[in-house]
Amino acid sequence: MTPNKDWFTTYKSINGGLVLMGNDAQCKVVGEGTVKIKTHDGVARTLTSVSHVPDLKRNLISLGILESLGCKYSAEGGVLKVSKGALVLLKANRSGSLYVLQGSTITGSAAVVSSSDDTKLWHMRLGHMSEKGIHFFNKKGLLGKHCTGKVDFCEHCIFGKQKKVS
Asked: Which residues, other chains included, contact 85 with Cβ-Cβ below 8 Å and sequence gap of 6+?
């Protein structure tokens, strides 16, 4: 749930629906749609069936709904992690009695990602393939016209201790 209508990437107005707050106040749901968020690991994720409740003071993510979608969650040391299988989807830090999501919303034109150089994208898609391998596929024309074949610095490769040609 969110009070921010401008965060929705898709939106439809709905007539009816109430949310019961902790102080027994009722807030009206006026719309529903999808919201894109950038998570702790930089991945853009889409939240669906997000309710637009203008009277809310905070954005809320239901752990119950995430659990019904097959996610698991655990909290330890002030950090809440929501995962599906071995993949951690969301992380949140405890602030007082609430958990605050590590991430941000993606709004407007920032929701569309474009790049003039797809080399890094292909490097990651192909399991952090070497520059030599990227060149091979690029010469065959398999990586598209925006791939230069020059792999920039990749922190994940360094931490994975891949060898680098001098």
From this structure: none
What residues contact 6, with CB distance under 8 A and at least 6 apart?
107, 108
- Which backbone phi and psi does 136 adopt, to 5 degrees? -60, -50
Residue 103 to residue 92: CA distance in whole angstroms? 9
By percentage, how much of the chain surpasses pLDDT 90? 46
> For residue range 18-52, what is the model confidence (pLDDT) as tens digits?
998 888 889 999 999 999 998 888 888 999 999 99
Closest among 67, 66, 33, 38 to 50, alpha carbons compared: 33
CB 120 within 8 A of CB 147: no
**Residue (of 164, 152, 163, 87) closest to 123 by Cα position:** 152
Name the token pair of 14. 């709905």
